[in-house]
Predict the structure of Zn-ribbon domain-containing OB-fold protein.
Amino acid sequence: MVKAEEDIGRVKIVNGRYKLSGKFHIPEANQPIFNEDTGKLAGITNPRDMTYVHSYGGEAIFFEGIATGKLWASRCDNEKCANPGTIYEPFRIYCPDCLRKATPIDITEKARKTARVHSYIITARSGAFNSLKLPIKFINVEFEGVATILMGYLSVGEPEMGMRVVPIFNTKKPTYTIVDISWVPEGTKESELPEGFTF
Ligand SMILES: [Zn+2]
């Protein structure tokens, strides 16, 4: 259902409190399911049109970053940790080893210079609400000096193991979700990028 402008559910934070406007639950009549062979009732449909409020909390910096062309990672700076100095991407709020709050670090340049395809999978069929172009070329991206790999998708060309890739960001009309970061082979021209994306 396409909502009228004033019905779109919007949320802002004012004086530390969430303020909601618009409609977050839209009722729609259910429909019966009849068996056309027997004329008997078999069930009903249950329409559900709702807007979910998803708080990013300590991960907000990561999503604001990819919308503005920056890739944030986390580093454990606790000297008493079993593995101090370990860098994690995807971004995590807490160190998985010592459970102390990790330090956000900008690894955009590291990604530009060292990112490689660790592995990939091409998906021809997607689930509901998919917004990516099919087939989706999912890639696991590794970075020099980073302990973990980041799942992403390749927007230009075909993936190969070990291939050098560089990040691109949906900075022109960001969605503030994980699809705002994508990857292209090193050497891709700006004119080949998908609409809204920049290096
Ligand atoms: Zn730690």
